[in-house]
Amino acid sequence: MSHLELQRRGILCVVSGPSGSGKTTLCRRFSGEDSSAVYATSATTRALREGEKDGEDYFFLSREDFESRATRGEFLEYAEVHGNLYGTLKSEVLTHINAGRDVLMDIDVQGAALIRKNPDPAIAEALVDIFILLPGEEELLNRLAVRGTETDDQVELRLQNAREEMRHWSDYHYTVISADKETDFATFSAIITGERCRSNRLAPSQETVAKHSELGL
Ligand code: 5GP
Questions:
Q1: Nearest one of 56, 22, 30, 61 to 43, comparing CA atoms
Q2: Distance between CA atoms of 174 and 150, rounded to whole angstroms?
Q3: Beta bridge pairs of residue 56
Q4: Which atom of ligand 1 is nearest to 24's Cα?
Q5: Residue 87 falls within a domain, yes or no?
Q6: How far apart are the C-alpha atoms of 45 and 28, rounded to whole Å?
């Protein structure tokens, strides 16, 4: 039998979890260490926090700019979270998936629900959704307090939202019960590795198809 070269379609990895679950770190670290994976930078109307860079952490937009882009259909999904708009630009996702690169995105439960409902079969096939769950209320409080970048009111709002978000863990195909950074990263990487091996993500490369038809195979 002649050698068959297989090409893989990219995964769209949607990661949600409450504030402090480490979901952004997991996505950023994985895409930083793995050359086939990219992080989809979101757009938001929230103010830039100290240490954040426009275009790296987020594309920071005015509400007006965000809304006009939404009207023009530039977002794959968007939602209001903690009083601000957050959205994933189509341009950050579709070209990568089509080129066989995996896209990691850290979005809230509303955004994940919108992606699940997306009518494009390419999105449905690419989708891998993962929830990062904190083992209990105490851990949630600890992790929110550790961050220290928010005022008490913001922490209270995030706590309420976190409790609400946690209720949605079973909507996701995978749930990682957060332990420590290294264990979480190993589990997260294992899920992506497994998903990459699914046969339905593989197809003979264009070269293989051309060679086989030349040889009349
Ligand atoms: P933060 O302001 O702490 O960076 O993010 C707040 C929340 O917004 C997090 O739950 C995060 O997952 C969510 N988020 C970030 N980007 C997006 C996005 O593009 N779409 C949606 N729906 N949520 C997002």
A1: 61
A2: 30
A3: none
A4: 12
A5: no
A6: 21
Length of the chain measured in residues? 217
113, pLDDT greater than 70: yes
Atom of ligand 1 nearest to the CA of 23: 12
User: The tokens of 113 are what?
Assistant: 């629900």
- Ligand 1 binding residues, C-beta < 6 A: 19, 42, 46, 77, 79, 81-82, 86-88, 106-108, 110-111
Question: Containing domain of residue 169, as a range?
Answer: 3-40+100-215
The Cα–Cα gap between 44 and 211 comes to: 47
- The dihedral over CA atoms of 68, 70, 72, 77, expressed in degrees to the nearest 10, equals 170
Mean pLDDT for the chain overall: 91
- 3-42 tens-digit pLDDT: 678 889 999 999 999 988 999 999 999 999 999 999 999 9
Give the closest residue to 86 by CA, choosing from 95, 96, 76, 94. Answer: 76
CATH of residue 29's domain is 3.40.50.300
- Whether 10 is in a domain gets the answer yes
Q: pLDDT at position 2, please?
A: 57
Residue nearest atom 11 in ligand 1 by C-alpha distance: 107
> CA-to-CA distance for 117 and 151, rounded, in angstroms?
35
**Which residues fall within 8 angstroms of residue 138, CB to CB, at 6 or more apart?**
none
138 alpha carbon – ligand 1 mean position (Å): 23
Q: Domain for residue 27, yes or no? A: yes
Which residues is 80 bridged to in the sheet? Answer: 85
